[in-house]
Design a protein that fits this description.
Two copies of one chain form a homodimer.
Chain A lengths: L2 H15 L3 E7 L2 E2 L2 E2 L9 E6 L2 E7 L7 H22 L3 E8 H5 L5 H8 L5 E5 L4 E6 L5
């Protein structure tokens, strides 16, 4: 199983353990005539609900040799999807999901901190071994 | 000559015609221990000055089969570089440079408009045939 798919399923399991109901997998975003998530290799969004809270979760593995490249891609995707959701599904909040090891290493570096400091950015940290969510930044209310 | 290099030189010529002095080509951004622009295939930033105005110009060709993919990449790169410049060279403004045809087609679509509407985004439109800058959005003061 590819690392990408593995983490996708891990995050789904972690969300379910955390009391979420998976409503769409993948969540398809369309804008104008373009289907935003058709690209080969694009990570697929997971849509989930818990009580009144609705999220779209984008899982990123950060396994490429160029972590800065992956950061740029994650940055652009997060804010593009965020903008589309604001127009089409304004109550749904998008979160970027990264594994604990990635959060504790790359996201503690200065370059990773830049994304964490970007207004409107939201991160979900999961542990792949125990398949659980460690934290939501910012905390989610539901 | 690759399309990427071609447009890079075109934009340099257009800037010079517009009264700018090229000060760095490429402009190297470093953050923490990482050199942000070492990635193979990454477009290189052009640094230029005119009077008191300082810009960093990122040229994007939008020739990939997946324009949405290119948009995501451009989006992430623009705002990552923007954040680095805010810390390291706060008077320098970054602009994304796109060819007139790209501006008049893809950027008029709903998905392209999303980036144009993003707060803090700055675009430079050039004409590759006449090698001139058509517009700065927002207008640059110098």
């Amino acid at each position: 199983m590819a690392a990408r798919d593995f983490h996708h399923d891990t995050v789904k399991t972690a969300l379910i353990k955390d009391g979420w109901i998976i409503t769409d997998d993948p969540l398809i975003l369309k804008i104008g005539t373009r289907n935003v998530l058709v690209d080969l290799g694009a990570e697929k969004l997971i849509a989930a609900e818990r009580g009144a809270a609705k999220v779209a979760v984008e899982v990123k593995t950060f396994i490429s040799p160029s972590l800065v490249n992956e950061l740029e891609k994650a940055w652009g995707q997060f804010f593009l999807y965020n903008r589309i959701l604001k127009k089409q599904d304004p109550l749904r909040q998008i979160y970027l999901a990264v594994e604990r090891n990635v959060f504790e290493t790359f996201f503690q570096e200065e370059v990773g901190q830049l994304l964490l400091e970007e207004p409107g950015f939201r991160l979900l940290v999961f542990d792949a071994k125990i398949e659980e969510i460690i934290q939501w930044k910012p905390q989610i209310n539901s």
